[in-house]
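Possible regression after last week's pipeline update?

I re-ran a chain I had predicted before the update to compare outputs. Posting the input and the new output here so someone can diff against the archived version. Not blocking, just want to make sure nothing changed silently.
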Amino acid sequence: MKQSSSTEITIGKLKIGGKNPIAIQSMTDTDTADVKATFEQIKELVDAGSELVRVTVMDKNGAEAIPKIKELMQKNSKYDVPLIGDFHFVGHRLLEEVPECAKALDKYRINPGNVGKGNSHDENFEKIIEIAITNKKPVRIGVNSGSLDEELFTEMMEKNAKRKNQKSDREVFREALVESAILSANFAMKLGLSKNKIVLSVKVSDVQDVIWCYEELAQRTDFCLHLGLTEAGSGDKGIVASTAALSTLLQQGIGDTIRVSLTPEPKAPRKREVEICKYILQTLGIRHFRPMVTSCPGCGRTSSDFYRKLAKKVNMHIEKNMKIWKEKYPGVENLKIAVMGCAVNGPGESKHADIGISLPGKSENPSAPVYIAGKLVKTLRGEKIAEEFLKILEKFVRKKKIAFALEAEDTPLNTTGKDVEKAFIKSGHDAKYAKAQKKSYDAMLKDEKNNRLTEWE
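New output (post-update):
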């Protein structure tokens, strides 16, 4: 599903495009001049999983704050992700007046629709590109439907009016968005900016429009592409619109980095947009960030809301322990868990998961079979089913540590201890770590042989 023909670019220490994983990015909403507040929000976004962070640079105070923000990010390597400056109207001036800002940023984002009009448009655009070339920085040329180059759109509308078979205003508008991006990219390359320094985006709020524009871009160019809606909206609408648009494009292999421009609920954390990106990529099977829980929606056959409470407890347990699990059990993010509510689909879904539980429905025996790797390993009864299942889940994750590690290294389980050791050394781990993994693997094989791996009392 990954578009392999796009051009690879490097942003700071991160590579996107080509065959690299699709990267998640986000944007702060703090006053950039407030260094402390902006850095705190960057930490929130990075902790949530954002791999690039964009900040607004709208005035000289904001531009002068950029080197200070970058310095704080570099002091803690965890937060030293690519920092992108978002420029509108006066970017050419700010980058020239505050050269430290131009140096500190890892990428510039510019909007060809508002860099100027007439002769000043090309002059201002050229100034930004020259500064990017001098500082060896990549540039995202981001076209937005709300700020489309008026002169270009007017020119294209006039040409359309003279056509025998005229296109609709909407069709011309879509074409103008794509044309603006491509013309700007070609102009940037003519000025000396190489293709592997250019990212393109064409953002629209309408789902069908954004799909058409990116499909057209992907067909006509091989530039690295940043996907997103201009303004997705808030709540369920924003989530559904973003998911519909991005999933349609990602499924075709279009896109190299994504952002969900979600309007946050009052006092809600900014990180929600990052979490939505992760769910989109994981549900499509493109990347994995945490174990996925399949749970029953419920119907008249379910006897209570217990399965809902258990599904919630399992998800909360994962959230609580994921940081530790990720460090101790690499590959645990690929785990599939099922929490089902009756006998119709419960046993089947539970068998298809890595670990699953099928709770009783109405008129069913008050028992809850637990399946691991497709096999029934234990049947739970009584008032402490939830607690007992979570204990089994924890034990399963610990027991499968080496299996997760091997999966992360693309090494099959049916291999020898020596091959396991070689696989970890080949992937860059030191000899001590590789020997420890071999020891764990040999112990796992011994447990399997003695049937201890499936004793879940």
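Follow-up from reviewer: compared with the archived run. Residues 306-328 form the longest helix (23 residues). Marking as no regression found.
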